[in-house]
Amino acid sequence: MTTAKKTVSPFSRRRFLVGAAGATMALPFLEGLHRPDHASAGVDRARFAVWVRVGNGVQQAWDTEPESFWPRTPGALTTAGMMATDADRATSELAAYADRLTLLRGVNRPFGTPNCGHAESIPQCLTGAQVSPGTANDPRALGQSADWRIVDQLGTAGVEPMTLMAGPSSAYIAEGLSWRDANVRTPAERSPANQYMRMMGLTMAPPEVQRQLAARRLSVNDLVRGEMNALLGRSELSRWDRRRLEQHRDAIRDLEVRTMSCDLDPAVAGRIAAMTGPEGNDVRLEVVRLHMDLIAFAFSCDYVRAATLQVGEGNDQTMYTVDGSVLPRFHWISHRIYADGAEGETIPDAVSLHHQVDRLQLQTFAYLLEQLDSYASAYGGTVLDDSVAVWLNDLGAGPPHSGHNVPWLLAGGCGGRLRTGHFLDVDVQINQVLNTIVTAVGCTNDGGGPVDDFGDASLPSGGVDEIVV
């Protein structure tokens, strides 16, 4: 694969407020401060992509196990149909967004996993690349991932993709979604507080300032109040610009309250400030939602064009809580036994438990869609309309660790470039879906046309025409 020459969109040349203690606040796009020649040149709108990966496969039809994941019939999706006819299917959790969904059944992992189905699947998810033999739990992707392709071609120099994870750093199989290049893994940030400070430019602030922020005795808004007031007084700002700035300031305040304190007891708040709390099992989904808050916020101010969020380690060992009951380890449930291997005591009703976890995971994905949909877009509609949010699993069904029919659920039309409102049966490789997504966001091949060469050179080229407008 060849990487297209990097171009920087004018929309990503973002402005910042620099305040006390070296604090830097990234600003949203402001028409009044935007150079008029950009608009007259017909510059395209900003578009974004986020991938949310979950593990261990989904409870779909396999062997004697019933179908509990996909809608019953391919075709147009409606909220009424998903809530009635398909109410027993996990995807019904996304019914509120039916007309903005593209459900793809029949996406296939390109290469086998001779050593470990979990470890060797994750690196393929966003690269479509072969995986180096390595060790059983630490293989390496032999290609760049889609988030880096987007940021390399469309992003602001020096701003990396948001690479987030909810899970322990000590995991046997850790993060593996984001690859700067072949064999170069991107470390995932597990702490929402750390990611928030990085976004706000506070990593260079003195330790005392960071401690005050973490303890909620100081706000980023405090550090840039004078600069913010001066900016709000600029005559060239429109009413819309001022409203965006005020919303931006308020969003920062709300994020600080939710991210830095989470209304937890002092012991838990201390663990969060010490960067250990976010890795605990009991706060797993809370951390996922906080990461999602930050992703939506980042897209709303064009902080970055691409983000990834890995839920759980490679073989997700999270013990999820459903209806007040703590379930066995999810990896065990996916194996249907109380063990990580092939032998162990059978877990009663494991198929039903797996389905319940699927529903819980999709409820959480719906939370991301809600957050993206809560920000107004500068182009009309919402940030969800500017984006493509992807929910994917690196395995198809749990027990066989299959690479066939790995779920890819897309939401958002990516600025009108993706066809939505359908459940489609396809037969494609992951790299073809990635070609389609990175093209929709705005990337091109070396000739300026649609990206058709992402992933390993041995794979089929081109995209998935059925989902392109």
Radius of gyration: 22 Å
Poorly predicted runs of 5 or more residues: 1-14, 34-43, 257-272
Please indicate the percent range of residues in DSSP E strands (runs of 2 or more).
5-15%
Mean pLDDT: 83
The assembly state of the depicted protein chains is single chain
Q: Which percent range fits the helix content?
A: 25-40%
Indicate the overall shape: globular
Record field, number of beta strands: 14
Q: How are helices and strands ordered from N to C?
A: EEHEEHEHHEEEHHHHHHHEEEHHHEEEH
End-to-end span in angstroms?
25 Å
Q: Based on helices, strands and strand pairing, what is the structural class?
A: alpha/beta
* Number of separate helices: 15
Which tags fit this structure?
469 residues, alpha/beta, eight-stranded mixed β-sheet, two-stranded antiparallel sheet, 13% strand
